[in-house]
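sorry for the late reply, my laptop died twice this morning and i had to redo everyting from scratch. anyway the thing you sent over, i finally got around to it. pasting the sequence first so we're on the same page, its 261 residues, then the predicted structure underneath. double check i copied it right bc i was rushing
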Amino acid sequence: TLGTQTDYRDGETQTDPYSPEYVVPSGSVPELLTLATLTWGRGLPAGLAEVEMIERAREKRAWEATLPAMDNASQIAKRRKMMDDMERKEWAFREQEIEKLQEVRLEVLKKLLQRREENQNELDAKRLDYHWQNHQKAKEEKMKKIQHDCALMLRKLIAKRKNVMGKLERRDIIKEYSDFASQTYAPLSRIGYFPDNHSERYVVKNFYLNTFAGLCELEASLPDSVTQVKIKAPKPKYTTTKTGFIKRSARLEVELAQVHQ
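ok and here's the structure:
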């Protein structure tokens, strides 16, 4: 009368089919005993190959029943001939099985070789792609270096062209201070000047912010309205109208206060 719910499926708890014990009566050979070698997972459930094997066993038992008795020499020769023919048939069938097995192995070997070739081609493609990327990276770096060297040589040629005759020129201070791109305002680091090393001299130093006396003087200069705050009390709201009636909002507030209490 009770139901239970498990954490497993029926397929996970299913066991192999049960094979009960059996007793063979004396003097009888059941055909079912020829399938005793087949077990679940090894031949059962029966497929096409197992069915063919069962049919061959039946044919062999029928052939054994047709063998002549060994009571005279002619019957013995006939029996020997029939057995030789059956043996040749069995060898021919065995050769066919071997050929089928070899064909299956050959197909498996072809698939393995094809898969190995595909893997090798994929590996070769990855390797070629890796080498191509490395060559492209080296090519780009070389082009960048050539462009950098070209720009450097152009700057040198332009600088030489400004003073072709090699005359010595005096320093024009007025020109340097009038040009905001000169060495006075924007010195270059390649001539040995690094503006970041002296960055502390650009910090703003204020007397009113960095010293106590400056703060006191700054506070004294402020008006009283900044330091002394004046608060005006809010005017009470009128709950009555000019004619003496109580406003609707006032009545609602009173009701809300009562409900809240």
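The chain has a mean pLDDT of 86.
thats about all i looked at so far, will dig more tmrw
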